[in-house]
# Entry
Amino acid sequence: MTGRGTIIVNPHAGGGVDLDALREAFAEHDVEECEPRELAERLQKLLASEHPPAFVGVAGGDGSIRSAAEMILEHSPQTPLLPVPEGTRNHFARDLGLCEIDDAVAAANGGLTRTVDAASVNGTWFINNSSIGVYPRLVAHREARETDLPKGLAAIVAAWHQLRAGRRIAVSVDGDPVVAWAVFVGNNCYGDSLRELTGRERIDEGVLDVRIAHADRNFSRMRIFGAVLFGRVEQSPLIERRTCTTVALDTGRVAHVALDGEVVTMGSPLHYEVRPGALTVLVSGEHP
# Structure
């Protein structure tokens, strides 16, 4: 990959970004600050300009990366996206092997392009996962606890907190009525433990990973907590898993939907679809 790219920087990512250091690291490219609320407008103008950049990099977390991916997919799907890991959580960048700034610099200066899948719900794009119910709050709580607790203990504390405080939801999954604590929809397949539900080995399988945490069985709250506590999520009969290319969730009312760590309000039903190879990304030449 050759050509001059533009790196858009969320100045608030990860508690603050060293803009001068990023400009030095990406000396062969343009680096500019942009407030999150202005990102969509800035990218739309950039992609529609007479001389658009060879690629668009975004230094920020998954929310900023999702917003950038959405603009690229809508306005210039051939333009490569480079996630620069500067956020509090950088799941998408890490899944692409971009774990450090040096990895992103290597990708910008002679890396490779590859296509990966994206997914959408009611026409809104996401790159990692979406969910309704208690799951998004559970993950956020766990990751906040990881600053002062070991990962395993943080997962246990988060699971108990959310299962204790969470409410059941009645939802139809492709016409099947269920009562659930949460329904999770991943862009490709995630792991089977709570700790592994933040990463994927592949983002190009062309599938949705649907998990239903059932809440209509005896002692479901405690049994799910026990499965998390003892690392038996995969074996739990309360966690139903489906792999598909489309799925419809109907709550019968307006739903609060988590998209890559951010919550939006959408009308029900929620129509999910995976779009194989829709997004072009830049990765380091050393990434498999």
Remarks:
- The domain at 129-277 is CATH 2.60.200.40 (Tumour Suppressor Smad4).
- The chain has a mean pLDDT of 85.
- Helices lie at 19-25, 39-47, 62-75, 91-95, 101-108, 135-145, 151-165, 220-229.
